[in-house]
Each structure stands twice: as C-alpha cells, then as structure tokens.
Recover the amino acids of this structure.
C-alpha cells in the first residue's frame, strides 16, 4: 500500500499558523516602530552631524554635495541607535493604547495571561536585535570611516605630523622545555619614540631569538619596505652580545634591512576610531594593543567591545519594559508614551556612561561595564512582569 504524502504548505501560509491575537498585535506594533526609527534617526542626525556640517559649509567652504554625502554616510549610525529606542516606543505606545481601550482587559478575561500577551513584542524585539547587530557590524563602521575620509579629503586636511608616541611591541615564541612542555618567552622587543605617519623615529630593538646570542639594534629612523616585507633602518648601530654579557661585535650602518614583524607599524598607524570598527576589527586591534599598547587603551577597547555586543540586546530589554509598562498604563495618550520613552532612554544611557567610566578605571570587569545597563533593565522588566501577573 503506497503511503500518500501530504503536500507541503507554502512558506507564505506560515503566517496563517499565527493566532489572530498575534497578527493583530504585530500589525499594531509595526507603525509606531517605523515612526520611531524615522523621528529618532532624524533627531540624531540633526544633533550629531547636521549642525557641524552646516558650520563646515559656512566657515570652511565645504561643498554642499560633499556635506550631503557625509550626512548620508552618517545616517546608518543614528538609525542603529534609533532601533532600541523605537522598540521601546512601539511596545509602550501599542500596549498602553490597548490598555486604554480595554482590549487587554478583554483578552485577560478570556484567559490570556500577561506572559502570552507580550510574546509578539518579544518576537518583534528579537528581530530588531538581529537587525541592529547586523547594522552595527556590516554597515555602520564602514559608513563612518568613509564619512571621515570624505570629509578630510574635501577639507584638504593633512594627517597630523605626529601620530603616535612610545610604540612598544613585544613578540613571543614558544620553546620546548626538558619535561616536554612548551613555554612562551619573549623573543623580540620593539620600541620607537615617535611615529609621524611615514616613519618610526628613535628605535631600539632587542632580539633574543638566537640562542646564546642577543642583538641590540639602535637607529634614528626606520620605514616599512612593503615590496620586500622588511624594515629599512637608517643611521644606526647593531650590538651583538654574547651569552656571558660581553659585546661580541659592534657594527655601525647608514642603511640596514631587518626581518621584523610589521605589527609595530600596524599598532602605531591605527587610524580608525572605535565607531569605525566592527567587533572583529576591534578584536584584531586589541591583539595588537596587548602586545605593547597602553593599559588605558586596552581597558577602554575591552569595554567598547562589550558595549558593541550589548547594544543590540537593548532592543529586547526596551521592548520588554515597554510592553509590560504599557500594559499597566490606562488612559494615557501618545504624548505620555513619548515622554516616558525619553525618560527611560535617558536613564539607560546615564547607566551606560557611568558603567563605562567605572569599567575603564578598572573598578569592574569590562564585561560588566558593557552589560550592566541591560542587566538592570532585565531586572526592572522582571519585577514589573511579576507585579502584572498577580
């Protein structure tokens, strides 16, 4: 007997599996969310970029076409910032309206719990969380970097003659011990007093990579030879030190090529701001900084990396708080919902600033500094949900 297979349902019919309540709440949530994205993006661009570009047009003669291009390139950053706030506005206004019209009361009378009522809001916020993360990783850093380059090129701003000072890079290698374990030891130490954007100045390199023989290289300047993948050192001296500490040889030179890693140059020439790097680029830069960067920069970057990951999840936190708080508000207008949104956002970003500063000072771990506002928000949402369910 041949089994009769059921025809597969087309993907377009998936929406039919949703309950009428889910579809109704979803449709109600989308318009205020889109409204929030538009209004908060516009406010962010106006405050954060437009006024400065107008000043550049009037004072520095920036062409209007370039100003418009830079404004468009800065827009994705503020759209990403607007996503969490819009999620809060959408859930707060939607659920407060439903509460004011007694629709939530009717649903509760039919046996629908508060937990079930906020499921559409959670679903929307999860989608917005993924969208925010993708925006911050794929669009915002590239757009911000291109905006910076476009503005610098249009204003004919030369790079400052001095880029970095006291560049310190440590290179390690693993050696086998007698018991078979491998130990990581310092093989080279690279130090430069200055980097002007083109060459290193005041260099000292300690080379411990050769067993029983140490080498000290001192030079006035050095540049990276990209064609031969080596360093060209100029006007320096090479000291070769034996294992017993005596000088074995001293060689002065006008020009000398040395096989050293390019990493010190990458460390010194890092020009991107934190907002111009995604998480992967930030982690690569962190690896470089940990080889010899300042502890302040390392700590600051660690905190910023955690914030980059934590920010998209603010959409979920805001959505939960907005849905639960909105369901408790009765007879409140749109202006009330908008005012509460601004108040919650202000409090959240105050927490972001405070936790960031404390973490950068080293009083709390970077992961806590980045996630503390979300933890507080989830705690408040849980408390409100527990009270609403009684």
């Amino acid at each position: 007997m041949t089994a009769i297979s059921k025809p597969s349902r087309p993907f377009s019919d998936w929406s039919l599996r949703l309950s009428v309540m889910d579809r109704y709440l979803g449709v109600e949530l989308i318009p205020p969310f889109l409204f929030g994205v538009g209004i908060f993006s516009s406010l962010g661009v106006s405050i954060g970029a437009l006024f400065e570009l107008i000043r550049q047009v009037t004072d520095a003669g920036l062409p209007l076409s370039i100003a418009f291009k830079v404004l468009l390139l800065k827009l994705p950053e503020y759209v990403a910032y607007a996503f969490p706030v819009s999620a809060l506005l959408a859930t707060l206004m939607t659920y407060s309206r439903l509460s004011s019209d007694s629709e939530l009361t009717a649903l509760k009378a039919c046996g629908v719990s508060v937990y079930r009522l906020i499921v559409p809001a959670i679903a929307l916020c999860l989608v917005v969380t993924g969208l925010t993360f993708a925006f911050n990783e794929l669009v915002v850093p590239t757009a911000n970097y291109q905006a910076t380059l476009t503005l610098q090129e249009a204003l004919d701003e030369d790079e400052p003659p001095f880029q970095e000072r006291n560049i310190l890079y440590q290179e390690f290698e693993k050696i086998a011990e007698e018991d078979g374990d491998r130990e990581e030891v310092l093989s080279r130490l690279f130090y430069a007093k200055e980097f002007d954007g083109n060459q290193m100045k005041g260099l000292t390199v300690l080379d411990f990579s050769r067993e029983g023989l140490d080498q000290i290289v001192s030079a006035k300047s050095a540049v990276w030879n990209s064609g031969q993948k080596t360093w060209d050192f100029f006007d320096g001296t090479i000291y070769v030190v034996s294992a017993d500490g005596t000088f074995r040889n001293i060689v002065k030179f006008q020009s000398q090529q040395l096989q050293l890693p390019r990493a010190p140059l990458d460390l010194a020439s890092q020009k991107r701001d934190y907002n111009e790097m995604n998480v992967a680029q930030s982690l690569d830069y962190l690896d470089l900084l940990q080889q010899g960067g300042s502890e302040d920069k390392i700590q600051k970057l660690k905190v910023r990396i955690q914030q980059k990951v934590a920010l998209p999840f603010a959409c979920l936190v805001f959505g939960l708080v907005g849905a639960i708080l909105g369901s408790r508000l009765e007879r409140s207008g749109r202006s009330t919902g908008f005012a509460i949104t601004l108040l919650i956002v202000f409090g959240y970003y105050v927490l972001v600033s405070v936790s960031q500063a404390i973490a950068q000072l080293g009083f709390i771990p970077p992961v806590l500094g980045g996630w503390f506002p979300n933890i507080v928000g989830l705690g408040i949402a849980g408390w409100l949900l527990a009270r609403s369910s009684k």
User: Anything to note?
Assistant: Residues 1-16 have pLDDT under 50 and may be disordered. The CA atoms of residues 33 and 90 lie 5 Å apart.
